[in-house]
Design brief:
The complex is a heterotrimer of chains A (142), B (276) and C (390). Chain A is mainly alpha-helical and 142 residues long. Helices cover 49% and strands 4% of the residues of chain A. In chain A, strands 1-2 form a two-stranded antiparallel sheet. With 276 residues, chain B is of the alpha+beta class. Chain B has two domains: 43 residues, no CATH class; 226 residues, 2-Layer Sandwich (Alpha-Beta Plaits), CATH 3.30.70. The termini of chain B are far apart. With 390 residues, chain C is mainly alpha-helical. Chain C has one domain: Formate dehydrogenase/DMSO reductase domain (Formate dehydrogenase/DMSO reductase fold). In chain C, helix 4 packs antiparallel against helix 6, helix 4 packs antiparallel against helix 14 and helix 6 runs antiparallel to helix 7. The chains are: A mainly alpha (142), B alpha+beta (276), C mainly alpha (390).
C-alpha cells in the first residue's frame, strides 16, 4: 500500500508529537517534590501561645479547597459592600477580611507556604502583583 | 441505522458543544453563586458611617507650599502612589499618577478668571482630587462597574475588576483619574512603602477613594489628618450637625464645573472661614 | 467552500505571506506592550485614547457601510448589486474583526475582558458597543456564508435568511450610532458633546466604506476573473458622493456652532487641530491634508464626467479614504482630549511600537479580507454566467 503525501504526514506527525510531549521532555531532570507548606512563622507561633492551638480562619481542609473562593468573596464584601469582619464558621472567631493584613499577617512566609503548592500546581495567582507580600524572615528555631 | 459522514459530524459537534457548555456551566456556578452575607460578615463596629460623605476645603488656611505638600504626600504615601521621575528629577508627566495635587485657581476653575485679575490670584493654589460626584459620568460609562457608587456617597474603585479601557478617564470632567501605563512598583520605594495597603498593577485606573479603608477603621482620610487646622473638613453633609454641613449652608462655597450637573461633593470655601 | 481560501497562485500566496509578516511584527510588538504596559504607546494621563481607539472608531464605520449595498439590493430590488453585496458583507466581517483587535490591544488588562460579560452594565455605552458589534459580526458571518453557499449551488438562499438580512440594516446603523454615543454623551469633552456626532459618524462611514469597496472591486477585477461590473461601481460611486457631501456639511455645522457661539470649550479643540493652540501645532499639517484630500475627492466625485472615468473615481476614493482616516481615525480622538480639563495643551503622537501594532492589526484584517474575498471570487468565477436570485 502506498502512503500518499507520506512526507507531509510524517513531518506533521513529528511536529504534533513535539508539541504534545513538550511538558514531559521539558521537565526531565527537574525535581518536583511534594509541596510542604510550612505553618511555623513567628506570628503563627504567637497565636499558638495565646490560643493553645494553630488555627486559621477556617479548617485546613476547607482552606485548601476554598481559599481562592473565600478570598474572592472577601474582596467583594470589603471593596464593594463595605463589610470588614468575617465570622468563622468553624470557630465563631472574628477576622479582618484582608489578604495583606489578615492572611499574610500569619502566613508571612510566601516562599515556604503559598509558593509551595502554587509552584507545584504551576499556578500563578496575580494577587501579589498588587498585594504586598511580607518580607521573608528567618524562622524562629525555638 | 447508517450515518453518513456529515450526520456524524453534526452529532459529534452538537454533543461536544453541549458537553463543553455543561462543564463550563458547572465551573461557573461558583461565579454566579451568592457571595458572603451577614451574619457571616459584618462591618467593623469602629467604622465611620455616613449617608453622604463630603469634603470642605479652605485654601486660606494653607500658609505655605509645605502645608500643601504635607497633604499630598500623606495621601500618596499612605496609598503607595508611585512617583515617576525623569532623569533630571522633574516629574515624568507621561507616567505620572496623582490622587491629590495642587493646581492654580485659573486651572481649577477654568473660565472663572478674567483679564484684569492679578497674576497672584490666578496663581493661588487649590487642592484638587476626585469630587465623588452625586451624578458621576465615570460610573455611568464604566462597562464592568469597576468604578461605582457606595451607599455612603463615595465613588469607589475596584482594582480587581478594572479592565483598563480608560473610558472613565475620558468621561471625568476634572482630570481626577490616573492610569498605570507601566508597573507602578518601578517607582515605589519598597523601603518606605505602606505595607498595610496594596499597590496597583499595570493596566488599571486609580484615583482618590476618600480613604474608605481608613473610614472602615474609624480614621479620617489621610489628607484631612495631615492638613493644617481648619483647612479641610470631612463629614456627612446630610447630618445637620456636621461641620461640613454647617459650613456649606452658611458660607459661600464653590464647586468645580457645576454647570455639568455632576454634583461634586468637594466644596471650596471662598473668603476664609472661622471654622477650625 | 472554505478550502478556496487555500487554493491560489504564487501572487496570492506572496500577498498572504507579506500580510502575515506584517501581522507577526505587530504580534511581536504587542507582546512587548503586554509585558511593559501601555506606556509603550504615546498615550499619557491627558490623552488617554489615541491611535488604537481612533482606528476602532474608523473601522466600525467601514463595517457599517455594508448596509449601503444591502439596502438597495434587498429592500429596493436594485439587481445591479446582486454580485457585489457579498463583497460588502465580507468587508464588514474583516472590519469588525479589526475593531475587536484594536479594542483588545488598547485594553490595560485584556485578560479581564470577560468582566464585560460577567458584569453587564446596562448604563454603559461601551457594554452596548460590545453587544452590537458581536451581533453584527455574527449576522454578517451567517448571511455572507449562507448566501454565498446558495450561489455556489446555483439555488436561491433559504427563506429564513431574509430575516437576518433585514435585521442587518438597522443593526448596521446601530453599531455606528452606539459608537458615536461613546463620545457624544460625555459632559467632560466639549469637542464631542454634539447632537450630530452619530449623524457625522454615519455619513463618514457611508462615504469611506463604499469608497474602499470601489477600490477593492477594481482590484478584484484586475487580479481575478470576476468583474463586479461598471454600472455597480458607478452606483456605489454615487452613494460615496452623496455621503461625503453630507459628512462635510455636518462637519461644517460643527464649525459653525463652535465658532459662532464663541464658547471656548467648543472652539479650542478646533483651533488646536486646524491652526494650533498655545504654540502647539502638531496636528495642523495632518488636518489640512485631510481637508485638501476631501475637497479634491469631492471635486472629482461631483462631476459625472469625471466620476465616470474609473481611473479618476479610484483616485477620488483613495483620496477620500485617506482624508476620512485622518479625520476620524486620528483627529477626532485627539481633539476630544486637547485641551485637557484644566485647559492645558499636552500633545500626543503615536510611538513606533504603537504604529507597528496598528499596522499588524490592519494586516490581520486584510488577511481575513483577502481569504474571504478569495472564496467569494472563486464562487463567482465558477458560477459566471448563471443568474443570481436572492
Amino acid at each position: 500500500m502506498k502512503l500518499y503525501d507520506g512526507g507531509k504526514i510524517l513531518i506533521g506527525l513529528v511536529v504534533f508529537l513535539a508539541f504534545v510531549l513538550f511538558p514531559f521532555y521539558n521537565n526531565i531532570g527537574k525535581v518536583n517534590a511534594k509541596p510542604e507548606p510550612k505553618t511555623d512563622t513567628p506570628e503563627i507561633q504567637e497565636w499558638e501561645k495565646v490560643n493553645g492551638k494553630k488555627e486559621c480562619v477556617e479548617s485546613k481542609e476547607f482552606m485548601q479547597r476554598e481559599h481562592m473562593q473565600l478570598l474572592n468573596n472577601w474582596r467583594d464584601a470589603v471593596v464593594r459592600d463595605m463589610y470588614r469582619v468575617y465570622v468563622s464558621k468553624s470557630s465563631g472567631k472574628q477576622f479582618n477580611m484582608s489578604l495583606q493584613n489578615g492572611c499574610l499577617h500569619c502566613h508571612s512566609n510566601k516562599k515556604k507556604f503559598c509558593d509551595q503548592c502554587h509552584n507545584y500546581m504551576a499556578v500563578k495567582p496575580f494577587c501579589f502583583d498588587c498585594h504586598i507580600q511580607p518580607l521573608e524572615k528567618e524562622e524562629n528555631k525555638s | 441505522m447508517s450515518l453518513d459522514r456529515r450526520q456524524f459530524l453534526k452529532i459529534a459537534g452538537i454533543s461536544s458543544i453541549l458537553g463543553f457548555g455543561a462543564s463550563v456551566a458547572s465551573a461557573t456556578h461558583t461565579i454566579w453563586e451568592k457571595g458572603l452575607e451577614p451574619p457571616q460578615i459584618e462591618p467593623n463596629k469602629d467604622g465611620l458611617i455616613a449617608k453622604r460623605w463630603a469634603m470642605v476645603v479652605d485654601m486660606s488656611k494653607f500658609k505655605t507650599d509645605e502645608d500643601i505638600k504635607m497633604v499630598t504626600n500623606a495621601c500618596h504615601q499612605t496609598h503607595n502612589v508611585p512617583d515617576f521621575r525623569n532623569p533630571d528629577g522633574t516629574v515624568d508627566e507621561k507616567f505620572e499618577i496623582k490622587w491629590i495635587w495642587q493646581e492654580p485657581y485659573e486651572r481649577t476653575f477654568p473660565g472663572a478668571e478674567n483679564q484684569f485679575m492679578s497674576e497672584h490670584i490666578k496663581g493661588m493654589p487649590f487642592l484638587v482630587f476626585c469630587n465623588h460626584c452625586d451624578n458621576p459620568p465615570c460610573v455611568r460609562v464604566c462597562p464592568t462597574k469597576a468604578t461605582f457608587k457606595l451607599s455612603n456617597g463615595v465613588t469607589m474603585q475596584d482594582e480587581h475588576r478594572c479592565i483598563g479601557c480608560r473610558f472613565c478617564m475620558a468621561a471625568c470632567p476634572y482630570g481626577s483619574r490616573s492610569f498605570n501605563w507601566t508597573d507602578p512598583r518601578k517607582a515605589i520605594n519598597a523601603a518606605t512603602e505602606n505595607k498595610a495597603y496594596p499597590t496597583r498593577t499595570k493596566g488599571v485606573v486609580e484615583k482618590c477613594t476618600f480613604c474608605t479603608e481608613r473610614l472602615q477603621f474609624g480614621k479620617m482620610p489621610a489628607c484631612v489628618e495631615a492638613a493644617p487646622k481648619g483647612a479641610m473638613f470631612f463629614g456627612d453633609i446630610e447630618d445637620p450637625n456636621s461641620e461640613v454641613r454647617k459650613i456649606v449652608s452658611s458660607q459661600l462655597t464653590i464647586r468645580r464645573k457645576p454647570e455639568l450637573g455632576t454634583g461634586p461633593a468637594v466644596y471650596y470655601v471662598i473668603g476664609g472661614s472661622d471654622h477650625a | 467552500m472554505l478550502e478556496k481560501a487555500f487554493e491560489g497562485g504564487k501572487s496570492y500566496w506572496a500577498w498572504l505571506m507579506f500580510l502575515g509578516a506584517l501581522a507577526l511584527i505587530g504580534v511581536y510588538y504587542y507582546i512587548q506592550q503586554f509585558q511593559f504596559g501601555l506606556g509603550l504607546t504615546g498615550l499619557h494621563r491627558d490623552v488617554s485614547w489615541g491611535l488604537y481607539i481612533g482606528q476602532f472608531t474608523f473601522l466600525v464605520g467601514v463595517a457599517a457601510s455594508a448596509v449601503m449595498l444591502v439596502i438597495p439590493y434587498y429592500l429596493h430590488d436594485f439587481k445591479k448589486f446582486g454580485k457585489i453585496v457579498i463583497l460588502g458583507e465580507f468587508l464588514a466581517i474583516s472590519a469588525v474583526t479589526m475593531c475587536i483587535l484594536f479594542i483588545f490591544v488598547d485594553m490595560g488588562q485584556p485578560m479581564r475582558i470577560m468582566n464585560v460579560v460577567l458584569h453587564p452594565t446596562l448604563n454603559s455605552v461601551m457594554f452596548w458597543d460590545s453587544v452590537v458589534l458581536s451581533g453584527y459580526l455574527a449576522i454578517n458571518l451567517l448571511v455572507g456564508w449562507v448566501t454565498l453557499s446558495a450561489d455556489r449551488k446555483g439555488v436561491p438562499p433559504p427563506k429564513w435568511i431574509k430575516f437576518f438580512i433585514y435585521l442587518s440594516i438597522p443593526w448596521a446603523v446601530s453599531i455606528h450610532t452606539v459608537t458615536a454615543f461613546l463620545y457624544a454623551g460625555l459632559p467632560a469633552r466639549h469637542f464631542w458633546l454634539s447632537a450630530v456626532m452619530a449623524a457625522r459618524f454615519l455619513a463618514s462611514a457611508f462615504a469611506a466604506g463604499p469608497a474602499l469597496l470601489i477600490i477593492l472591486g477594481l482590484i478584484v477585477r484586475k487580479v481575478t476573473k470576476f468583474d463586479p461590473g461598471k454600472e455597480p461601481i458607478q452606483a456605489v460611486g454615487k452613494i460615496v458622493t452623496y455621503a461625503m457631501f453630507a459628512n462635510v456639511f455636518l462637519l461644517g455645522l460643527e464649525f459653525f456652532t463652535a465658532f459662532y457661539s464663541g464658547i471656548p470649550g467648543h472652539a479650542q479643540p478646533f483651533k488646536y487641530l486646524y491652526v494650533g493652540l498655545e504654540g502647539h501645532t502638531e496636528l495642523v499639517p495632518l488636518m489640512w491634508t485631510s481637508t485638501i484630500l476631501a475637497v479634491l475627492a469631492l471635486v472629482l466625485l461631483v462631476f459625472p464626467q469625471l466620476r465616470k472615468k474609473e481611473g479618476l473615481l479610484a483616485f477620488a476614493c483613495v483620496s477620500l479614504f485617506i482624508s476620512l482616516w485622518i479625520d476620524k481615525g486620528f483627529g477626532l480622538i485627539i481633539g476630544g482630549f486637547v485641551p485637557n480639563p484644566f485647559e492645558e495643551v499636552h500633545p500626543y503622537w503615536p510611538t513606533m511600537p504603537e504604529a507597528l501594532i496598528t499596522l499588524g492589526v490592519w494586516a490581520i484584517g486584510f488577511l481575513v479580507l483577502s481569504m474571504l474575498y478569495k472564496i467569494a471570487v472563486s464562487v463567482r468565477e465558477r458560477m459566471a454566467g448563471i443568474e443570481i436570485e436572492h
